[in-house]
Specification:
Largest sheet: 9 strands, mixed
Shape: globular
Radius of gyration: 23 Å
Number of helices: 13
CATH architecture of the largest domain: 3-Layer(aba) Sandwich
Low-confidence stretches: 414-426
Structural class: alpha+beta
Oligomer: single chain
Mean pLDDT: 94
Number of domains: 2
CATH class of the largest domain: Alpha Beta
Length: 426
C-alpha cells in the first residue's frame, strides 16, 4: 500500500475515533446509539466519494457496494464492526471496516470492474455491550439466530433491540434494504489481535487459523430482602452470599479442569443494591472459553450443578445464551493470505484467535478468513488500546492484495484441498 493511501486510512481511523471519544484516548460508541449513527454517516460519506453504493438490512448491518460485472453472482464481503465497548479503544472493529473501505476504494479507483460485487460491511452490535449477547448483525445475516429473538433483547434501560433498530434505521430512510441471508462467495476481516502473541513474536501480521469456542450464561439467584440490623444470619436468604459461594466454586473448579479454560464473571447486578438491606436478588453473567470443544462442553455441563449446589436457601436459574464451538477458517483463503504476505515481503505467522469475531458466523456460510495485526501489550476493550501505523499498513496491504485476487477470480468458492498452514485447529 503506497504511503499516501495508508495516510488516508490512518487519518480516517483517527477521525472516526473522535465520534464517541472519552478521556484517555478511548471511545464509547455502543450499538444503535446516536454515536454509531454519526459513524455510519461518516463512513457512508467516504464510501460515496469512492463511488460505492450504501445499503442496509433489517438487522442494521451497513453495506457499501462496488458493483461487479455479474450482479447476480455471490459477492465478496470484507469488514468488521463500528460499535465499541463503553470504555473501548480506537482500533477494535473500526480498523477492519476502514481497511476494507480503503481496499475497495482503491479497486474502484483503478477503473477495473470486478467479476462480482465487492462489499464493505459493518456488522451490528458485535460487542454486545448494550444488547447482550453480541454479534447480533452477523447472527441475523447468517441465520444463526432468529431476528425476532434478537429484537426482543433489552438493554439495561429496558429499551428493546427492536425499538432501537427502528429508531436507528429511521435515521437512514434513503438507504435501500438488502434481504438477510444473501449468498456470499467469501468473507475477509482484518482486526487487531486483542492479545500479546504477535507483539511478543515480533511479527506484524497473523493468519488466523480459527476462533476458540465460547459459551455464555445468565444466572439469577433469588433470595429475600431483609433488614441488615434485625434479620438473624441463620434466617437470611442472602442472594449476595449465594453469589459469593457460586463465584468462588466456579473459579475453583474451572481452574482445576484445564489450565487453558478462561472463566469470566463480567457483570453482576444486585437488587435492591442498598447498604442496609439483605440482597433479594443477584443476576450475573458467565463467559466460558476454550479452544477444545470437548473440554468446553465438559466445563459448560458443570455450570448449572455448581450454582445449584452453592445457592443454599436461594433459588437459582441458569440460562444458556451463547454456544459457539471452536471453528477453523478456510484453508484456501488462509493460503491466499500467506501467499500475499510473501509477495509483499511481510512476515506473517498462523495463530488462533482467543477472542470472538463476526467472522465466526460467516465461516458457517462461506469461505472466511481473518488477518490480525498486533496491539500493544495485548490491551483491548480499553482506552489504552493501540496499534502501530506500520502494522496496520502491513495488514491492510495484504487485505487489499487478497481482495484483488478474489474480485477477479472466475470461480468461487475456493478449492478445499489446499494444504493447511501450521498451527491449525485439530
Amino acid at each position: 500500500m503506497p504511503a499516501s493511501e495508508f495516510d488516508r486510512l490512518w487519518r480516517r481511523l483517527m477521525a472516526l475515533s473522535e465520534i464517541g471519544a472519552i478521556p484517555g484516548g478511548g471511545v464509547d460508541r455502543q450499538a444503535l446509539t446516536a454515536g454509531e449513527a454519526s459513524a455510519w454517516r461518516r463512513v457512508i460519506e467516504w464510501g460515496r466519494e469512492a463511488g460505492l453504493h450504501p445499503a442496509t438490512d433489517e438487522a442494521a448491518n451497513l453495506f457499501l457496494v462496488l458493483p461487479g460485472r455479474d450482479r447476480a453472482a455471490a459477492p465478496v464481503l470484507l469488514g468488521s464492526h463500528l460499535d465499541t465497548q463503553p470504555t473501548g479503544g480506537r482500533f477494535d472493529g473500526a480498523a477492519g471496516v476502514l481497511a476494507a473501505l480503503d481496499a475497495v476504494t482503491d479497486l474502484a479507483a483503478s477503473g477495473r470492474v470486478p467479476a462480482r460485487d465487492c462489499v464493505v460491511v459493518a456488522w451490528m452490535n458485535e460487542e454486545g455491550s448494550r444488547f447482550a449477547p453480541g454479534m447480533m448483525g452477523s447472527e441475523a445475516f447468517c441465520g444463526v439466530r432468529d431476528l425476532a429473538a434478537i429484537r426482543a433483547v433489552r438493554d439495561a434501560d429496558g429499551v428493546s433491540t427492536g425499538d432501537a433498530l427502528e429508531r436507528f434505521l429511521a435515521g437512514f430512510p434513503d438507504l435501500p434494504r438488502r434481504p438477510l441471508g444473501k449468498p456470499v462467495a467469501a468473507y475477509l476481516e482484518l482486526h487487531i489481535e486483542q492479545g500479546p502473541v504477535l507483539e511478543a513474536a515480533g511479527i506484524p501480521v497473523g493468519i488466523v487459523t480459527g476462533i476458540q469456542g465460547k459459551k455464555t450464561y445468565a444466572v439469577r439467584l433469588s433470595g429475600a430482602e431483609g433488614h441488615a440490623g434485625t434479620l438473624a444470619m441463620a434466617q437470611r436468604r442472602d442472594a449476595v452470599a449465594a453469589f459469593a459461594r457460586c463465584a468462588a466454586a466456579l473459579h475453583h473448579e474451572m481452574g482445576s479442569l484445564d489450565p487453558d479454560i478462561k472463566l469470566t464473571v463480567g457483570r453482576v447486578q444486585v437488587t435492591p443494591n442498598a447498604p442496609s438491606v439483605v440482597a433479594g436478588e443477584v443476576r450475573f453473567s458467565i463467559d466460558l472459553r476454550h479452544p477444545d470443544n470437548a473440554v468446553l462442553d465438559a466445563a459448560g455441563a458443570r455450570i448449572a450443578p455448581l450454582c445449584e449446589a452453592e445457592a443454599g436457601p436461594c433459588a437459582v436459574a441458569v440460562t444458556p445464551l451463547v454456544d459457539a464451538p471452536s471453528n477453523a477458517f478456510d484453508p484456501g483463503l488462509r493460503d491466499r493470505i500467506g501467499r500475499a504476505a510473501v509477495e509483499l515481503g511481510i512476515p506473517a505467522m498462523p495463530l488462533l484467535s482467543a477472542a470472538g469475531h463476526d467472522a465466526r458466523h460467516l465461516a458457517g456460510r462461506c469461505p472466511a478468513a481473518m488477518i490480525f495485526v498486533p496491539c500493544r501489550t495485548g490491551i483491548s476493550h480499553a482506552p489504552a488500546e493501540w496499534a502501530e501505523p506500520a502494522h496496520l499498513a502491513a495488514g491492510a496491504a495484504i487485505l487489499a492484495r487478497v481482495l484483488e485476487d478474489l474480485a477477479f477470480a472466475d470461480a468461487l468458492p475456493l478449492p478445499p484441498d489446499l494444504p493447511p498452514l501450521p498451527g491449525d485447529l485439530r
